[in-house]
Write a structure and sequence with these properties.
The protein is mainly beta. It contains four helices and 40 strands. Strands 1, 2, 3, 4 and 5 form a five-stranded mixed beta sheet that branches.
Length: 491
C-alpha cells in the first residue's frame, strides 16, 4: 500500500523588539524636527512631554515581549502611526499602541481559503494556475493560493494522487478510478482509461506525445493519444508497485516499492534496474535537475546519480528527517518535503541541507510545487502553504558561504553500511589533502582523495563492494592536521 495513501487513510486517511529600538529612536529625531516647525509656541511643552513619553516607551516598554508584535501589512489596523524606520528593504510602522508592523515576512503562510479538503497529495503549476489534488478532488487557484475553488465536474473518483500538465491538457490520476483528462483547466473532466487495467495511478509523466502512468501493482502504462488508449509497458520491470516517474532526455525512470529505480531508454518497452549504491530501495519520489537525478526514499533520505542511475550516492548531510515524500527543483536549488520533518533546501546538489520550515505548523509535507517566485507545499491535514523562493534561498546562501573555522572530518553516513557510504569534511582554506581508508591492521585499502581542494564542504563516497565485512578506519590528512574515524562494513 502506498505510504502516502496509508497515511491519509489512517486519519480518514517578535520580531526581536530590542533590535529595532535604536532604529525607532533615530526615526523620532527627524520626526520631532518636522513637528516643531509646524506647532505654536504655547504647545511646545505639550509636544516635548509627548515626545519624552514616546521615547521612554520605545526604550523601556518595547523590550517587554508582550508589548510588540510583528504582522503583515494587510493586518495594519492601528492608525496612530508615529514612526517609519527602514532597515534594508524592510519598512516598519511604529504606532501609539506600541505595535510594530512590517512589510516583510520570511515565514510559511497557510493559503487555504476555499480548500475544503486539507489532505493534499499532489500540487502542480500550469502558467498562473495552481492545482491541488486531494482526497476530496481537484482544487484550482489563480491567485497564488489566496482563494481555491473545486474543479471536479466529471470526475467520478475524488481520491486524487497524481497530476501532470501536457500543453493544454491536465491529467489526474486517482486511487482506484484511473485517469481523467481536462482540456479547460479543470472545468470539465473526462475519464480516459481504455486499456488501463490497473486504476491505482500513483504517478504520471509526459515525454513529447507520450503519456505514462505508474500504477500500484500494475507497473507502467503508455498512451500516445492523450489517454484515449493505454498499453502496459513492463518488460523487465519486476517490481510493479510504482510510486514515481521521471523523464530525463530519452530516459524514463520509475521509482518502485522495494525494487529501487528502473530505467527505460525506449519509451518503456524494456526496463533495467539501476541501483548500484542505492542502499534504500523504497523510492517514493524522483526529480531531475540538469544531468542530476535525485531519488527520495522511505527512511533512507536522498540519493544522487550523475550518470542516469548507473551509480548512486547518498546526499543527506543536514537532512535531519530521511522520510522523503516529495522533491522539487527550482533552478539549481533542490527542495525536499519530509513526513514529520518539514522542508529542507539544498543549494549544492544535495551536498548539504538546511531546514526551511519557519512558520510551517504541519510538517507532514506530501507535495511541493514551484510557481513563479513562490514555493507551495501540500501537507496531510494542513492544506497548502506558500513562501517566496528568495526568502529561503537567500538565507541559506548566507549560511553556506561562511568559511569553516577549521578542518572538520565528519562521521560517515550511513554507518554501518553496505556496500557504500559517504564521508564529508570541511576545509577552512584551499588545501592539499589525502583521504584514505585502512583496515584494522593498518593496511591501506582505498585512496579516496589525493590532491588540492578548494575551501568549503566536500563529500566523497567509498564503495566497498569488493571488501569483506569488518571494521575500517578513514583518515583525513593535510599539513599539520590529521583526523581518523571508524566505519563498519556489514554485509
Amino acid at each position: 500500500m502506498n505510504v502516502r495513501v496509508l497515511s491519509m487513510a489512517a486519519r480518514d486517511l517578535s520580531l526581536n523588539n530590542k533590535l529595532f529600538s535604536m532604529n525607532l529612536w533615530r526615526s523620532a529625531i527627524p520626526l520631532g524636527a518636522i513637528v516643531l516647525s509646524s506647532i505654536r509656541k504655547e504647545n511646545l511643552m505639550k509636544y516635548f512631554l509627548f515626545l519624552s513619553e514616546f521615547i521612554f516607551g520605545i526604550l523601556f516598554l518595547l523590550p517587554i515581549e508582550s508589548s510588540a508584535q510583528r504582522i503583515k501589512t494587510n493586518g495594519l489596523n492601528d492608525g496612530g502611526i508615529i514612526a517609519f524606520p527602514i532597515t534594508g528593504t524592510d519598512l516598519f510602522a511604529g504606532t501609539l499602541h506600541s505595535n510594530i508592523f512590517s512589510t516583510h515576512d520570511t515565514h510559511w503562510t497557510a493559503v487555504n481559503s476555499g480548500l475544503t479538503d486539507t489532505n493534499v497529495n499532489v500540487l502542480v503549476a500550469s502558467g498562473t494556475n495552481l492545482f491541488a489534488g486531494t482526497k476530496g478532488g481537484v482544487f484550482l487557484s489563480i491567485d497564488n493560493g489566496t482563494q481555491w475553488i473545486a474543479a471536479n465536474t466529471g470526475i467520478t473518483n475524488m481520491y486524487i494522487v497524481s497530476l501532470v500538465v501536457s500543453g493544454n491538457n491536465l491529467f489526474s490520476g486517482t486511487f482506484g478510478g484511473g485517469v481523467f483528462l481536462s482540456t479547460d483547466n479543470g472545468t470539465y473532466w473526462t475519464a480516459v482509461d481504455s486499456g488501463l487495467t490497473n486504476t491505482n495511478v500513483f504517478a504520471l509523466a509526459v515525454s513529447g506525445t507520450n503519456l505514462y502512468a505508474g500504477t500500484y501493482g500494475g507497473g507502467v502504462f503508455l498512451s500516445t493519444d492523450n489517454g484515449t488508449h493505454w498499453t502496459a509497458v513492463n518488460a523487465g520491470l519486476t517490481h510493479k508497485y510504482v510510486y514515481a516517474l521521471a523523464v530525463s532526455g530519452t530516459n524514463l525512470f520509475a521509482g518502485t516499492e522495494l525494487g529501487g529505480v528502473y530505467r527505460s531508454t525506449n519509451n518503456g518497452t524494456n526496463w533495467t534496474a539501476v541501483n548500484a549504491g542505492l542502499t534504500n530501495n523504497y523510492v517514493l519520489t524522483l526529480a531531475v535537475s540538469g544531468s542530476n537525478l535525485f531519488a527520495g526514499t522511505s527512511h533512507g533520505g536522498v540519493f544522487l546519480s550523475t550518470d542516469n542511475g548507473t551509480n548512486w550516492t547518498t546526499v543527506n548531510s543536514g537532512l535531519k528527517n530521511t522520510y522523503v515524500l516529495t522533491l522539487a527543483v527550482s533552478s539549481t536549488n533542490l527542495f525536499a518535503g519530509t513526513y514529520g520533518g518539514g522542508i529542507f533546501l539544498s543549494t549544492n546538489n544535495g551536498t548539504s541541507w538546511t531546514a526551511v520550515d519557519s512558520g510551517l505548523t504541519n510538517t507532514n509535507v506530501s507535495a511541493l510545487a514551484v510557481s513563479g517566485t513562490n514555493l507551495f507545499a501540500g501537507t496531510y491535514g494542513g492544506g497548502v502553504w506558500q513562501r517566496t523562493l528568495s526568502d529561503m534561498i537567500t538565507s541559506v546562501n548566507h549560511l553556506t558561504v561562511n568559511i569553516p573555522a577549521g578542518f572538520v572530518l565528519y562521521q560517515n553516513y550511513p554507518n554501518p553500511f553496505n556496500p557504500s557510504t559517504t564521508i564529508s569534511f570541511n576545509l577552512p582554506s584551499r588545501s592539499v589533502i589525502s583521504l584514505k581508508v585502512y583496515d584494522v591492521i593498518g593496511r591501506e585499502v582505498a585512496s579516496l582523495v589525493s590532491g588540492e581542494l578548494s575551501v568549503g564542504n566536500h563529500t566523497q563516497q567509498w564503495n566497498a563492494t569488493n571488501m569483506p565485512s569488518g571494521v575500517y578506519f578513514y583518515r583525513l590528512q593535510t599539513g599539520s592536521f590529521t583526523e581518523t574515524k571508524k566505519l563498519i562494513l556489514l554485509k
